[in-house]
Write a structure and sequence with these properties.
Layout (H helix, E strand, L loop, with lengths): L2 H5 L5 H4 L6 E4 L2 E4 L6 H21 L4 E3 L4 E4 L2 E3 L3 E4 L14 E5 L5 H5 L1 H8 L4 E6 L4 E7 L5 E3 L8 E6 L2 E5 L7
Length: 181
């Protein structure tokens, strides 16, 4: 075993609960989520929440939208997506089951992690939709989980409603261009 393998710590949810600040843990490795996201990130995040929340409210389905929330994938993997849609009741102080949709807003510090590490985690967890938002290019990518268990990039018009089938009794239409306003 290499020296690095002997000294690298491996963190779990119990460790995570003791830390100050905002963190994520991916396969035992901590990632600082500081500083707090900037104004553009916060603005887009609020708009995503608004658009999905309004669509969920008018659909009368039981799904709910959440801003960053601890999603404990497994004991050594805790993520905080920028936005989530959950269609079951959360009975703990964290989410420990698969949400119906997650969204990440890219930043220079998180882009590589969001497009690779988190993409693979979300796909492995079989999250039906992964939305990647880039406020620099005003682009939103929708990855939809297919029957083969792999994400496929959806082709859609951002000016037209996109239908998200969140669970068997919840389907919503969202115009993603509205998140830039």
């Amino acid at each position: 075993m290499s020296t690095a393998g002997k000294i690298l710590p491996h963190y779990t949810y119990d460790d995570y609960c003791q830390w100050e600040g905002h963190w994520e843990v991916l396969e035992g490795i901590p990632y600082a989520m500081s500083p707090v996201p900037g104004p553009r990130h916060q603005f887009i995040s609020g708009n995503i929440f608004r658009e999905f929340s309004l669509s969920l409210k008018t659909s009368n389905c039981s799904c709910k939208s959440y801003m960053p929330l601890d999603y404990v994938v497994k004991d050594d993997t805790i993520v905080q997506p920028d936005f989530l849609v959950v269609c079951k009741e959360i009975n703990k102080k964290f989410l420990d089951f698969t949400p119906s949709l997650v969204a990440e807003i890219l930043s220079p510090a998180t882009s590589l992690k969001d497009r690779n590490n988190k993409f693979n985690i979300y796909e492995a967890q079989k999250i039906p939709y992964y939305l990647i938002v880039d406020f620099d290019t005003k682009d939103a990518e929708i990855y939809h989980l297919k029957e083969n268990g792999k994400y496929a990039l959806e082709i859609f018009s951002p000016e037209s409603p996109y239908t998200f089938q969140l669970d068997s009794d919840c389907s919503i239409d969202v115009i993603l261009n509205n998140i830039w306003e």
